[in-house]
Amino acid sequence: MPGQTLPLKDIKPIVAVPDHSLWLLTALVAVGILLLGLLLFWLLKRRRNGGDPKRTEALKRLQALDFSDTKSAVYDFSLLGHFVATPETMPTFRALLAELEPYKYQKSVPALDTALETRLRDFIKEARRG
């Protein structure tokens, strides 16, 4: 019958579906802010306590270098300088290492050149500031 409509029996009435996405987004943002705050607190506390303990110890030992013992000073500077060198001072550090090569690997070495010793001390002062 063309003009007659039959009642639909399979279709259920509209049901409200709870939408928790706003609560989930709010919780996610809150957790992110909390984690960011904890990270910032940890970084500030670490910086206030002197930063990286390896760097701090290396700086102390570099400042106490005895340049009268050339061979020991050169080896200690070569080893400890890696801990205090920053990306900005790394080219200077590499240049100093290249200049220190003649003072290594020999049984007896001459005293450090005064200009080289001054540059080493300047590098240590720069590392202390940075």
UniProtKB/TrEMBL annotation:
Membrane spanning residue stretches: 20-44
Superkingdom to which the source organism belongs: Bacteria
Keyword Membrane recorded: yes
Keywords: Membrane, Transmembrane, Transmembrane helix
Name the UniProt record assigns to this protein: LPXTG cell wall anchor domain-containing protein
